[in-house]
Specification:
Serine Threonine Protein Phosphatase 5, Tetratricopeptide repeat; two-stranded antiparallel sheet
């Protein structure tokens, strides 16, 4: 009896478990562009275009490989994945669907409720299964990524010297914190020309999602596996050697520095994680790239990426709604491109608008840091990140935002909140040099807002954080300040937030 094989937009891998379980001579692959998936948050137009173009090309590859593929474009009018499955089941008489487990609880639930039974197979494109992560987590008081990462190094053998880490250390993050360089010798990620398929999709997205935040054209993402591999090779050859040194740096006029910009390819299934890690390790073994750069890159993939997925599925569908700090302020318009005098924020948001991309420090220590300091509702912050970045899927985005960035999960992901005043941004970027605000000032209308907001945050949450060993020093510093000065700092923060809440430009 014929079965349907569901392939989702972030499952564009020939080795997908659902495809491996199916019979090419009998079963029918179903792929669909549906409005429910394209609009559950107001996705960046580049993200929608990337996925639709990549989906169409993957469907063509499957057909060329001998599969019967039923593909629905957005204009064919299926509002949901289940609607598309029902249509093909009606045509073929199929009574069962084979699927690979989606990366979002929302889609898992929709498939579980489908009138046509859906058998969900594990997504074995990841290194760590749910059961393996749960076994690692069981009995631990703290689920720290560093220890999980070490186990993944041992499991993969990546950058190992027998049973010891290459170079004698597991983590070279201390070497990867250099401030912004005077000159960037890398021209940025590989840019791709649009072909007929991509141009058709761009026209569709332009017509249907013109009101979404984000610039659609120019569009230069790869949209197939060959392009994704070329992007990886370009990064390894030209950027990896300096990636480690400057991975935390930010420049106003250079959006990419030495970053790979391949996360959207890995997360959509176009580029296997192992291929990326093996290429980086080979560069180290050949003497092309230093250990700190290669270790930092590999840690992002088999450490943070796998860890975030583990947390997401372990914590369950309510994770996105956690709000331990009780933050309720609405997401301000400046996240959607409204005018702001804060150079770091305007630069990060502009990059996000134009590229559907910002690197991890911009996300964590600029837009995320500001949201946390300002007391913005973490669910609104979560939905913004999910909407605006081409690499964002809930399994990876939610733990990064709810846990790491907003500390809304109470410390499952991080041992302390990632907060800072303006000094950190000044150290790691050139933004403060041309900012309307003065980074060295704490009070007054021209003082950097991050400074007052930082101290106001600590003051507001003193009961929770004062005994945290990693934050005690900052409370001692606050307590040594003159009472009058403290009052002025808190007043500066209050006035700034009130102005922002009233919709005025800040």
């Amino acid at each position: 009896m014929v079965k349907l094989v569901l392939v989702l937009g972030d499952q564009l891998s020939p080795e997908l478990s659902a495809l491996c379980e199916a019979d090419k001579t009998r079963d029918v692959v179903v792929m669909a562009e549906v409005m429910e998936e394209a609009s559950y948050v107001p996705h960046h137009p580049k993200k929608i275009a990337f996925l639709f173009a990549a989906m169409r090309k993957f469907a063509a590859e499957l057909r060329a490989d001998g599969w019967d593929v039923r593909y629905f474009t957005l204009d064919e009018g299926h509002t949901s994945i289940v609607s598309a499955l029902l249509a093909v089941a009606g045509d073929t008489g199929a009574a069962e669907v084979l699927a690979t487990e989606p990366g979002e609880w929302r889609v898992i639930s929709a498939l579980e409720d489908s009138p046509v039974p859906v058998h969900q197979f594990p997504d074995d494109r990841f290194l760590c299964s749910h059961a393996e992560f749960d076994a690692w987590a069981e009995g631990r008081k703290q689920l720290r990524m560093e220890y999980f990462y070490r186990d993944m190094r041992r499991k993969t053998g990546l950058l190992m010297d027998g049973d010891q880490p290459e170079g004698g250390k597991w983590n070279y993050d201390h070497d990867n914190r250099k401030p912004a360089p005077d000159e960037v010798t890398h021209q940025g990620p590989l840019q791709f020309q649009t072909d007929e398929t991509t141009r058709e999709v761009l026209d569709l997205v332009d017509a249907r999602f013109a009101d979404n935040f984000g610039t659609l054209r120019p569009f230069s993402f790869a949209t197939d596996r060959a392009g994704a591999r070329a992007a990886l090779t370009h990064f390894i050859d030209h950027a990896l050697p300096k990636y480690g040194d400057f991975q935390d740096a930010m420049l106003t006029d250079n959006r990419f520095l030495y970053h790979s910009v391949i996360s959207m390819y890995i997360n959509a299934g176009l580029l296997p994680w192992r291929e990326a890690c093996d290429a980086a390790e080979a560069a180290y073994r050949a003497g092309h790239a230093p250990l700190n750069a290669v270790e930092g890159f590999i840690r992002q993939i088999i450490g943070w990426r796998e860890y975030m997925r583990g947390i997401y599925f372990r914590e369950g569908p309510d994770y996105m709604h956690r709000n331990l700090l009780g933050h309720t302020r609405k997401l301000p318009a400046l996240y959607w491109g409204a005018d702001t005098r804060m150079k770091c924020m305007s630069t990060a948001v502009a990059a996000t608008r134009d590229e559907a991309y910002a690197h991890h420090i911009q996300r964590l220590m600029v837009t995320g840091n500001f949201a946390l300091l300002a007391g913005i509702d973490p669910f609104e912050v979560h939905e913004w990140y999910l909407a605006v970045y081409a690499d964002a899927y809930e399994w990876v985005e939610a733990p990064n935002v709810i846990g790491m960035s907003q500390f809304a999960d109470g410390g499952i992901v991080g041992s302390k909140p990632y907060v800072s005043g303006g000094n950190y941004i000044n150290k790691m970027s050139d933004h403060c040099k041309t900012c309307a605000y003065k980074v060295k000032e704490k009070v007054g209308d021209d003082a950097c807002p991050f400074n007052a907001l930082y101290w106001a945050f600590l003051n507001r949450h003193r009961e929770r954080f004062a005994k945290n060993p990693r934050m005690a020093q900052m409370y001692r510093t606050w307590d040594r300040m003159d009472d009058t000065h403290c009052a002025e700092v808190l007043d500066r923060a209050d006035r700034f937030l009130a102005k922002m809440e009233q919709g005025e430009s800040v």
